[in-house]
Amino acid sequence: MSLITAQSLSKTYATDSVEVKALQAVSFEIQAGSFLSFVGPSGSGKTTLLNLVGCLDKPSGGSLEVAGADVLRLDRRAAAAFRGENIGFVFQSFNLMPVLTAFENVEYPLVMVQNLHAGERRARVLELLDAVGMSDQKDKLPDQLSGGQKQRIAIARALVTRPKLVLADEPTANLDHETAYTIIRLMKNDTRIIGEAEIVCTLEDGKLVRCEEAHG
Amino acid sequence: MGKLFQIALRNLRRYKRRSALTISLIAFGVIFVLVFVAITSSFKELMIRQITDSYLGDLQVHRRGYVASIETLPLNLNLIPQQAAAVEKVLRENPEVSAYSERIKFGAMFSNFAETTNIRINGVVPEMEFAACPQMASRISEGEKSVRALEKGKVLVPALLARGMGTKVGDTVVVVATNKDGSVNGKPFVVSGILESATGPGGRDGYIHLEDAMEILRMAQKEVSEFAVNVKAMGRVDRVAANLEAKLAAAAKDPKKVPFQVHTWSQLSPFANIANMIDLMTFFIKLMLIAIVLISILNVMIMAVYERVREIGTIAAIGTSPRKILSLFLVEGFCLGLTGAVVGVLLALGIIVVLNLSKLSFTFGQAKDLILAPNIAPLEVVSASVMVIVVSLLASAQPAYKASRMEPIDALRHV
Ligand SMILES: Nc1ncnc2c1ncn2[C@@H]1O[C@H](COP(=O)(O)OP(=O)(O)O)[C@@H](O)[C@H]1O
Ligand SMILES: [Mg+2]
Q: Which residues of B touch A109 (CB under 8 A)?
């Protein structure tokens, strides 16, 4: 069974003056695999597509199934619950809660979204912090971390709920090349981190290729 | 739930100055209300005690219609002997009545042989009068300061009248009155003491012994104009009055035409109007507190939501339910209100203690050197705190709702 099935998905943004057709009849099917990236130039509709798959936005037409559910039918509350159960998000600018420590940021979805009990919660958070190499930084606030470190915490937060799907919209855009490469490696290859999750990532044209070339 | 409080408190700490300002504003409002209530209620209590203990009693019983025409002190509206006996029985049987005094009231001419003036006289049984109005003795500024001031043949003269007529303790004076059938009678008295005025009607009356009054008025049997009643617990005076009224109605021959009427001090003294004014002012000051809390919390929560749009977008995207987001901001407003209330209550209690230690005194009318002892009922503290907290929640509701309704995709794009 495929994890994501999109059929003639389209999205039109209506601005004041013109209509922007960001997506036109996009159809694809993604089997549960391990890592996949949408690569394209700026303005090509990567973010738009990811928002639809992530149940953050509704398409103007077409059909979309994610993890066996017809996500277009979900209302606000159900969509939030669905995201909390099935999808992890990694954002371009990390989006950690500034008042919570690294540990608490990773723990957040287990308390406020999934409501896991304390013992299991702690074990899982520590495991993921270890996997992203942030165990020794766990009590720092986001302000005290570098960009790469923040993104590691964000990846741990996205995966701590054991989602079926992780969506990362240009997760490396705010990072230097070196750091970007390690972050991509982390998401692509480290099975301790990604577990069973399918990672869908968007990257600006050629960035991934450049990364891979640079490091073999 | 614990997490909600943790996040809310950390967010409040994040904007220290703003939170501190809001908390102090609320605390200031709470302090203002509580100290105002403490001072005015103790002033009220003091004044009421002054009035009821000096001459009024906590409540009074009359023949029906007497109070309506009390200006003329109508002798034909006195309680006839059987009625007076019935009232006395009811008063004696009520365990909440601590003392009562029967009075014969009449208007008279007062003469010191050189001048003559009008006077209102109360004929009383001294022991009963001093028990029902415990401040009688302290009101006597010159002369005999005990029940002996009202032995037969003696008169207690109100200070204003004594001053005006140059009357001194030990002088002989004559009291002349018209009795019920229209004839005039007089009797000489020795001035036993000067009675300082008290606020309100009846505060400038003279006093003689009940039997002297009966003699002047040529009463064959005792007819009583009023019973002044002292109750054990002032706070229950309305209930005691209702209770007495019911018992008196039961004692009446015809339940449709009960010849008795019970009035509490607040129905008899104009000070009740001042007391009501004070209550009204308290009410408006409480409204002010509500406005302060409402505006300051609303302001700070609107700012909080506006500043954290991206954070709201993030937590919404990763699956936080709209209800959790709503509670996050409600809890934040609640914590602000609660802290303001706690700080305010503690400071207010401190101020009240200091006011008590500094023994504020004041003068009201003829009453001098009344010592104010501000104190606050626990119920007032609780109700002010609850009010602050409820208003805080109400004020947070709109911004919190707005946060919970945000579309994550729009919120995330917000810079
Ligand atoms: N909220 C929006 N309102 C109007 N137009 C939009 C909006 N979001 C995206 N677009 C337009 O849709 C197109 C695709 O945008 P996007 O999905 O962000 O591309 P990418 O992520 O590949 O850079 C662009 O032309 C962009 O201007
Ligand atoms: Mg984009």
A: 318-319
Supply the ipTM of this predicted assembly: 0.92
Q: A117-125: long-range contacts (C-beta < 8 A, 24 or more apart)?
A: A124/A160, A125/A156, A125/A160
Domains and CATH numbers, chain A: 34-55+75-215 (3.40.50.300)
The tens digit of pLDDT for each residue in A86-134 reads 999 999 999 999 999 999 999 999 999 998 888 999 999 999 999 999 9
Query: What distance in Å separates the CA atoms of residue A11 and residue A25, rounded to the nearest whole number?
Result: 9
Task: State the residue range of the domain holding B47.
Answer: 2-51+273-413
Reported in sequence order, the residue ranges of B26-96 that DSSP labels E, i.e. its strands, are 59-63
Last residue of a domain, one of B228, B258, B288: B258
pLDDT value of position B235: 86
Q: Near ion ligand 2, which residues have CB within 5 Å?
A: A 47
Candidates A200, A171, A174, A196; CA nearest to A183 is A171
* Other CB atoms within 10 A of residue A36 CB: 15
Q: pTM, whole model, 2 decimals?
A: 0.81
CB B74 within 8 A of CB B223: no
Over residues A68-83, the mean pLDDT reads: 94
Task: Compare CB distances from A81 to B10, B14, B319 and report the shortest one's residue.
Answer: B319
